[in-house]
Amino acid sequence: MIEYGAGLLVELVFLSTVALIWIMLVYQFVLTMAGYLYSLSAARERRRLDALRAELPGVSVLIPAHNEELVIERTVETILASDYPKDRLELIVLDDASTDGTASILDRLADRYPCLRVVHVPVHEGGKGKAAVLNRGLTLARHSLIGVYDADNLPEPAALRYLAAQFDLEPRLGAALGKFRTINRKKNLLTRFINIEGLSFQWIVQAGRWKLLKIATLPGTNFIVRRDVLDEVGGWDEEALTEDAELSLRILEAGHLIKFVPYSTTWEQEPEDLRTWFKQRTRWARGSFYLMRKFFLNVGKAKNKALAFEVFYFLALYYVFLAAIVVSALLFALSATGLVSIPVPGPYLEVWLAAYCLFAAEIMLMLSREPHEDSPSNMFYCMAMYFTYCQLWPLVVANAFYLEYIKKERRVWVKTRRYTQS
User: Fold this and answer.
1) Which of 17, 31, 46, 97 is 20 to 30 A off residue 211, Cα-Cα?
2) pLDDT in tens, 251-260
3) Backbone phi, then psi, for 37, in 5-degree steps?
């Protein structure tokens, strides 16, 4: 056993991890309250937009599509069935060197829909990732607003209209993003956890940051960016695995706002098996490491100080917070087995229970902003995911760290597996 005198360092580490965890929890609580308040004002804003029905600008929607035969037809038809004026809507689907039936499906659709443009990227030029194909699409787009949807997305009829209308409400806006929902959320336990995670992240982090700081970060889908802003910042970074978050930081760096619009909703597929989920989240974590390296030394020069906040948030989340959780869990296990003694007095069990209850309460509060999501079953899943799903994240980050800094594996953008749409 490590005696008290020899274990002073252990005690300091333990207390530091408890303090760091609670700092993040308090910050998350503040975001939760701000996100809840924003949900109320966003509902009022939606009603005003529905009453106004102002003239909408032209928008070019880009859809990257690599081997998307399972989903692409329904996605195209759903977007073209939206209530956006067809004379101001251009849909460009970028067939990125697909080897399945994607090309033939798109050619058939192009014969039926005049506002659909299909671009077939040759095999020798394609397969370079989402950012590369979006940059190609940007050179072909005709309108001043550029929208992006993933190939599996089913946006609600008004989703695009709500996003485009934001640029008249806020002249300083560089981009506007909507909310994504999990269409296969009832498939299995994993998709139920992902559904709760996605909703809580958007209502707490995205909504809370917009309410408090007037910032948000772009997701991979259901967003619009001003064409001149894209030109100003140089388009998408083709080295980034999380090209959406990377673009967000450069838009903020240039002094523009990014707004979260929760009433613009799209439905998308999420991983239905752990292997697919683990690969996707590892890509996200490696992408975040790349962002921190790229922007950390320049945060002091940014026109928009929100950039510094975003970089330090990524730093705290992926390094400090997760490390504190792992260390505190390890010390707890060692202490329980008698290998380490931590005689620092304190109600640590009560502190842990308070953190757990706060975690569950915050999520359930924000789930109440969605119809039927604050159900007893979701309350059970929310409480269970702390001990199961949430514990997988340190493994994801550790794997990403190994690939990025130890193995130094080349970063390759790999799309998430699709499933047949029901």
Assistant:
1) 17
2) 988 889 999 9
3) -60, -40
